[in-house]
Design goal:
Blueprint lengths: L1 H33 L13 H21 L11 H30 L13 H31 L5 E6 L3 H12 L5 E8 L11 E4 L3 H7 L4 E4 L6 H11 L5 E4 L3 H5 L3 E6 L2 E6 L7 H20 L1 H14 L5 E7 L5 E7 L24 H9 L6 H7 L3 E3 L6 H10 L12 E3 L1 H4 L8 H13 L3 H14 L7
Parallel strand pairs: 1-2, 1-4, 2-3, 4-5, 10-11
Antiparallel strand pairs: 6-7, 8-9
Helix pairs in contact: 1-2, 1-4, 2-3, 3-4, 9-12
């Protein structure tokens, strides 16, 4: 994907810098000219030379910070929400750098200078600048995305690709690439890994033994290896065969298989060890996640207290039974705990049926329960579970022991989910897998989260959860 990365990355950098320049001087104009009737300048107008110095700092800091955050590396499958989150972080970090440098210069180099010469931006002007900059960069990136997609869909800078493997995984990969012409990938064919049948308009060009000839004759620029897990050694031999050639090599595997193949390298007294089934959520990372859980859950309980009191009152007035529903769920390392929810069903709803999954049209729901489940407000008491340490803000949804026993029989890797605390929201939930919808796919996404965890991923999931609550209904 190199050709994509070079010119799109350059356009992103050029657009980001242009929007930052525009945002800075527009904010200066708004603060010290257009909006002085609304926000009077009380301490005198600063010298324009001060803002030219700040402007130089801004250009330097924005360039360094955005490059450090890898903002211009090709991210072909990055969604708009992920890109917005990266822009928000970039602008926030760069702003903190500029403000810190300006403060350092004022304190240590301008002690005796008059106030109008202080190298310190107007706080209101800088807030305006940050808002305008984020808005401008998002708009610029949207235009570049639109332009790149249109050009690639029309055949500009297309990369010729070959898929090694004609089984379920290879066909799934071909189908996804075919649905996204903006990726700039044209599949010239597939190499038979499991059967010899063609897939749609993608021909089977031969066997794996014919790979060198096929790559040469068809001018292949990218190789997608999509072989089943039991052919891993064969896939590695293909990588070794072509790693010295100017061909991009990508190894595809289903998320469920890949999730437990994440490896790290450690050592015991100089002896290297390859750690299988490893997770980054340990040590200092686990402490950081717990601190985040405590701070945000305590803040949520304080801010949402009036809403929770109103919900409790409505439940009490509209149906018989307790306000809070207590249920045993399985948490970290398979240990049971009591999870709290606002009651959304009639009292003793499972007395006749036993444990059952609640559906989107469950007749046991109370009138107020339908609204609470649609808005996910029934989950609000779980902030107390997070504060206690039974749960985390982000993680796989904890299930009841009855269902866990069943799922362990049906899905061999299900218990791996319990290597982390269950969460109020999670990677599976923000990708549309909630309630009883497609449990196998839910497990795939939960295991992906387990092996790719980071504070940044947690923050992104928390950020997008409110926006995706209503897109993915069904509980």
């Amino acid at each position: 994907m190199r050709s994509y990365g070079y010119w799109v990355g350059f356009l992103k950098w050029l657009t980001d810098l242009s929007m930052t320049v525009l945002a800075f001087w527009l904010a200066y104009y708004l603060r010290f000219d257009a909006l002085t009737w609304l926000f009077p300048v009380r301490w005198g107008y600063p010298e324009i030379s001060i803002y030219w110095k700040l402007f130089g700092l801004v250009l330097l800091a924005w360039t360094v910070v955005f490059y450090s955050l890898r903002a211009y590396r090709p991210r072909h499958w990055e969604g708009r929400e992920e890109e917005f989150f990266h822009i928000l972080i970039g602008v926030g970090v760069a702003s903190a750098v500029v403000w810190g440098l300006a403060l350092y210069y004022r304190v240590f180099h301008q002690r005796n200078a008059p106030p109008e010469q202080f190298l310190e931006p107007s706080r209101l002007m800088f807030v305006m600048f940050m808002f305008l900059d984020v808005t401008g960069i998002v708009a610029g990136r949207a235009f570049i995305r639109w332009l790149a997609e249109r050009l690639r869909a029309r055949g500009w800078q297309i990369q010729r690709a070959l898929i090694v493997g004609n089984g379920t995984l290879g066909r799934a990969l071909a189908s996804r690439i075919w649905q996204h012409p903006e990726y700039g990938i044209r599949i010239v064919g597939m190499v038979d890994g499991e059967n010899g049948d063609s897939f749609h308009d993608v021909p089977v060009l031969g066997s794996i033994e014919d790979l060198p000839r096929i790559v040469r004759e068809h001018g292949v620029q990218a190789l997608f290896i999509a072989l089943p897990a039991d052919a891993f050694s064969k896939a590695l031999s293909i990588v070794q065969q072509f790693q010295t050639q100017p061909i991009s090599i990508h190894m595809a595997m289903d998320v469920l298989t890949a999730s437990h193949l994440r490896t790290t390298i450690s050592e015991i007294d100089g002896l290297p060890l390859l750690n299988i089934n490893d997770t980054p959520l340990q040590g200092a990372a686990a402490v950081a996640k717990r601190v985040l859980d405590i701070v945000l859950s305590a803040l949520a309980l304080i801010l949402l207290a009036p809403l929770m009191l109103l919900i409790a009152l409505l439940i009490k007035l509209t149906s018989r039974g307790p306000v809070i529903y207590r249920q045993i769920r399985m948490g970290l390392d398979g240990r049971p705990f009591v999870m709290y929810k606002f009651r959304t069903m009639v009292e003793d709803a499972e007395e006749a049926t036993g444990p059952t999954m609640a559906g989107p049209t469950d007749p046991r729901r109370t009138p107020i329960g339908k609204v609470l489940r649609f808005l996910s407000f029934d989950e609000l008491p779980q902030f107390w579970n997070v504060l206690k340490g039974d749960m985390s803000l982000v993680g796989p949804r904890p299930e009841r022991p009855y269902f866990v026993a069943d799922f362990c029989q049906r899905y061999s890797q299900y218990m791996l989910r319990h290597r982390v605390k269950g969460g109020i929201t999670g990677w599976a939930q923000v990708n549309g897998f909630r309630g009883d919808r497609d449990y196998e796919r839910r497990i795939e996404y939960d295991l992906y989260y387990l092996t790719h965890w980071s504070i940044g991923l947690d923050l992104w999931i928390l950020l997008v959860t409110p926006f995706r609550m209503f897109r993915y209904t069904g509980i």
